[in-house]
Structure formats: structure tokens, C-alpha cells
Design goal:
The chain is built from three helices and seven strands, in the order βααββββββα. It is α+β, with helices and mostly antiparallel strands. It has a domain at about 5-35 and about 80-150: START domain (Alpha-D-Glucose-1,6-Bisphosphate, Chain A, domain 4), CATH 3.30.530.20. Strands 1-7-6-5-4-3-2 form a seven-stranded antiparallel beta sheet. InterPro entries: ASHA1/2-like_C (IPR013538), START-like_dom_sf (IPR023393). This is SRPBCC family protein. It comes from Actinomycetospora aurantiaca. Belongs to the AHA1 family.
Length: about 150
């Protein structure tokens, strides 16, 4: 069993709006990449057992070598669970030769209604040891900020 990283944010939007943003290709492509990266979804199959492949490119690769290439991280994501307005569970595997990035990381996006909108909690289980914990938690928080900007609009 690997490490668990978490981040949470209250989003001023309904769980239904957040869920739509978690399950829409164009939305995911725009909000999921953390600060300093851009993303491109290469295929999309939003159903349990389906998934997507995303290529993340560093805007400034200096000092940030990619896991999959000089300036890229490629991740294969399977949809393990899709519960409308409640939860999305991803099983993510990085395409990398370095064994410290191997394995399947499970990312659970839990949506909890609140008076202010939706509490979105991301729990990443079995995080590969090659991913720095502080960097990962900052990255998740950045993605949550982009998600909020996309749905609060």
C-alpha cells in the first residue's frame, strides 16, 4: 500500500455542475492540468470501465523533467466509478520507464453539498513514490482552483 495525498476545496456551484465538469472531455482538458502545465485529452470514454488518456506538457520544462518524455507526463485514466452528483473515481497509471512512477493510483473526487455549494475532496491513494508529496498536493489544489473557476463562472 502506497501513500495517500489529499486536498479539498469548497466550490460555489451545485454538485450537479461539478459532476458535469468532472465528466465532460473539454472541461477536464481545461481545468485538470495544474498550474504550469497544459493538457490534451487523446481519447474519451466516460463510463465505468471506460477512461481517457491525457498528455500533460510543462509550459517551462526547466528543472521539471517529465515522467513520460522531456517535457511531458502521459497518464492513462480509467473510470472506476461514476456516481452522478456524488463521486468520480479514477484509476491512473503514468506512462513512464522509471519504476518509481509505476503502479495504479486511485483518485477519488468526492462531492458533498454544503450551504456554500459543493465541498470537493480529492483523495489519491497508492501514490507512486516518485511523485513528491508536497508537489502533488500543490498540484491537486491547483486543479481544484481551476475546477472552481470553471464552474463558478
Amino acid at each position: 500500500m502506497g501513500r495517500t495525498d489529499r486536498a479539498s476545496r469548497t466550490v460555489a456551484a451545485s454538485p450537479a455542475a461539478v459532476y458535469r465538469a468532472l465528466t465532460d472531455r473539454d472541461a477536464v482538458e481545461s481545468w485538470l492540468p495544474p498550474d504550469g502545465m497544459r493538457g490534451r485529452v487523446e481519447h474519451w470514454d466516460p463510463r465505468p470501465g471506460g477512461g481517457f488518456r491525457m498528455e500533460l506538457t510543462y509550459l517551462d520544462p526547466t528543472g521539471a523533467p517529465g515522467k513520460s518524455g522531456d517535457a511531458t507526463d502521459v497518464v492513462e485514466v480509467g473510470f472506476a466509478e461514476l456516481v452522478p452528483d456524488e463521486r468520480v473515481v479514477h484509476r491512473a497509471e503514468f506512462v513512464a520507464d522509471d519504476p518509481s512512477f509505476a503502479g495504479t493510483m486511485t483518485m477519488t473526487w468526492q462531492l458533498t453539498p454544503t450551504a456554500a455549494g459543493t465541498q470537493v475532496t480529492v483523495t489519491a491513494d497508492d501514490v507512486p513514490p516518485g511523485i513528491d508529496q508536497q508537489d502533488h498536493e500543490v498540484g491537486i489544489a491547483s486543479s481544484l482552483a481551476h475546477l472552481a473557476a470553471a464552474v463558478e463562472g
